[in-house]
């Protein structure tokens, strides 16, 4: 029998690779993990743990929270807090966020050490199907062999190369959370959730933000909820520019002059591209291992196995997968259990809950209304809807104006919450889509996802006694269907 240096080598120490390597080591495998960060186009670098910890979920959620605190200042005043005119200090926020991220990097290093995973801070590539190699600082090439190899190198932001000045001057989500100077007037290009989340917290922190939308916002999400999220963002000050996109970005006097496809020119301090991500598989020399690569660098797999039976892929690089941290983690752990503990459980990519952390959050699990209709036919779908103001925001007269302008209370936000259940009529109104726009949507959706996964019907939702007064209790008493044509917005 061939003997290898390791039972398992994992390339990429992000959410998926870290989880898989630790689980394999826990199960007794001899494991090595490679993680190396190539600087962003603007030279930003970060530590161990991958996208989520350094330039994704974690710093994003902290900046979102900072934004919510700003919005809450308006409510605080309404409820009697006497505050001076608040100002926001970007450097303090950046420092707090980066310090937290660094503490997580430290924890991950220790975690690998105590799990007995051999961590190599090196850029790995394939030499042959069982051999991974890397180049030391002194130029020497080192190799190690493994029985099983998992690729989990994640993705990086795409900046279109056909827009002169974009690669040179624009930042991405790889840079925004560590930006040295306050972003100032910002143009966000792209309209998926990373774009809207960044636009959302920058607006709440007090910056003038424009989002350049090529077609629609939040492609792939429920249309009604997506448009509600965008319209609420517009209400609180985010500008949406539908259609025209940058064709040229020029820097002069420290400002970015952006020419749009409609011929207009505007000036910003920051341009942030959030126009999708490519799988970072280009430098892996996959051809040396015979691994097939698909569109955008993604790797086709069946149950995480590539076309080469002992080489696997997990996380964002999986073709047709879901680019979410908990998905990468679970897939990586289950893979390790199948490889080293004889387990048989496969990753279930259906009914994965998710949330968009825009100023008014949006959470969902299951089908969008459009996808449910496309799959089951309109006659088989019943959609229940309710639009309302949460008690707190309603009572605080949360206003449309930027939260930090205390004096303007009169222009109240429209109803900021939307609860929606998409039900399958032939199966006793089984809930196949759960959607909620409103405060704490991530928390609300996480809880209800269990019901959806277990096959709950509309009647089951009705059986639940609400917790009063909450926004989530709306799901226990939805009674207006789209088919009825009745207004579903709360009145009075
Ligand atoms: P990654 O976490 O990207 O890790 C891959 C690692 O491999 C990186 O450290 C990379 O530097 C390293 N690497 C690459 N090539 C090599 C090589 N050749 N050798 C060695 N190392 C290499 N998901 C959520 O669930 N919730 C959220 O709220 C959320 N918010 C997000 C916000 C933003 C702005 C972004 C960008 C992403 C967000 N995501 C979110 C997605 C989430 O971050 C990813 O799904 C997750 O990090 C994917 O994990 P991964 O293991 O596939 O790869
Ligand atoms: P997505 O989900 O791939 O969305 C990309 C967005 O950028 C989308 O709105 C696109 O518009 C838009 N886009 C794409 N190319 C361009 C160009 N050239 N110009 C302007 N706009 C463009 O990317 P995200 O980065 O938000 O998220 C990727 C994943 O990473 C996500 O699932 C997270 O889990 C982590 P379109 O709708 O195609 O017209």
Automatic annotation (TrEMBL):
PROSITE patterns: PYRIDINE_REDOX_1. Pfam families: Pyr_redox_2, Pyr_redox_dim. NAD(+) binds at residues 190-197, 276. FAD binds at residues 61, 316. GO terms for molecular function: flavin adenine dinucleotide binding; glutathione-disulfide reductase (NADPH) activity; thioredoxin-disulfide reductase (NADPH) activity. Residues 352-476 form the Pyridine nucleotide-disulphide oxidoreductase dimerisation domain. Its cofactor is FAD. The active site is at residue 468. Disulfide bonds join 52-57. GO terms for cellular component: cytosol; mitochondrion. Its EC number is 1.8.1.9. Binds 1 FAD per subunit. Residues 6-332 form the FAD/NAD(P)-binding domain. It is an enzyme of class 1 (oxidoreductase). GO terms for biological process: cell redox homeostasis; cellular response to oxidative stress; glutathione metabolic process. Keywords: Disulfide bond, FAD, Flavoprotein, NAD, NADP, Nucleotide-binding, Oxidoreductase, Redox-active center. Belongs to the class-I pyridine nucleotide-disulfide oxidoreductase family. PANTHER family: GLUTATHIONE REDUCTASE. This is thioredoxin-disulfide reductase (NADPH).
């Amino acid at each position: 029998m061939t003997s290898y240096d390791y039972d398992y080598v994992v390339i990429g120490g992000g959410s998926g690779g870290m989880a898989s390597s630790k689980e394999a080591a826990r199960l007794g495998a001899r494991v090595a993990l490679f993680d190396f960060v190539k600087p962003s186009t603007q030279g930003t670098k970060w530590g161990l743990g991958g996208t989520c910890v350094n330039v994704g979920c974690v710093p994003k959620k902290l900046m979102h929270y900072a934004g919510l605190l700003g919005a809450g200042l308006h409510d605080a005043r309404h409820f009697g807090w006497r505050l001076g005119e608040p100002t926001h200090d970007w450097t303090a926020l950046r420092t707090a966020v980066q310090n937290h991220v660094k503490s997580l990097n430290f924890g991950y290093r220790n975690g690998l050490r105590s799990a007995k995973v051999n961590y190599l801070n090196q850029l790995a590539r394939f030499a042959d199907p069982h051999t991974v190699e890397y180049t030391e600082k002194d130029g020497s090439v080192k190799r190690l062999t493994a029985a099983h190899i998992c690729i989990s190198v994640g993705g990086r932001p795409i900046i279109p190369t056909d827009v002169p000045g974009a690669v040179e001057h624009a930042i991405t989500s790889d840079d925004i959370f560590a930006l040295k100077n306050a972003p100032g007037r910002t143009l966000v290009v792209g309209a998926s959730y990373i774009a809207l989340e960044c636009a959302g917290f920058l607006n709440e922190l007090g910056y003038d933000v424009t989002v350049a939308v090529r077609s629609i916002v939040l492609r792939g999400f429920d249309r009604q909820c997506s448009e509600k999220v965008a319209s609420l963002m517009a209400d609180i000050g985010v500008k949406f520019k539908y259609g025209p996109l940058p064709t040229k970005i020029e820097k002069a006097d420290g400002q970015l002059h952006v020419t749009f496809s409609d011929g207009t020119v505007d000036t910003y301090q920051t341009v942030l591209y959030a126009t999708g991500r490519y799988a970072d598989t280009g430098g892996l020399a996959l051809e040396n291992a015979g691994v097939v690569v698909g569109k955008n660098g993604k790797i086709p797999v069946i149950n995480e196995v590539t076309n080469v039976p002992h080489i696997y892929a997990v996380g964002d690089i999986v073709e047709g997968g879901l680019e979410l941290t908990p998905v990468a983690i679970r897939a990586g752990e289950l893979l390790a259990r199948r490889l080293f503990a004889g387990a048989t459980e496969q990753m279930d990519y259906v009914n994965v809950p998710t949330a968009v952390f825009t100023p008014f959050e949006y959470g969902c699990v299951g089908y969008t209304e459009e996808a449910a209709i496309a799959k089951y036919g309109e006659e088989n779908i019943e959609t229940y809807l309710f639009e309302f103001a949460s008690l707190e925001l309603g009572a605080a007269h949360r206003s449309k104006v930027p939260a930090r302008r205390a004096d303007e209370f009169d222009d109240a936000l429209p109803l900021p919450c939307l609860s929606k259940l998409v039900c399958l009529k032939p199966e006793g109104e089984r809930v196949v889509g759960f959607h909620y726009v409103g405060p704490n949507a991530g928390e609300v959706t996480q809880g209800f996802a269990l019901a959806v996964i277990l096959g709950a019907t509309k009647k089951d939702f009705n059986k639940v006694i609400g917790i009063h007064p909450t926004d989530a209790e709306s799901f226990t008493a939805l009674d207006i269907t789209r088919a009825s044509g009745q207004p579903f917005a709360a009145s009075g």
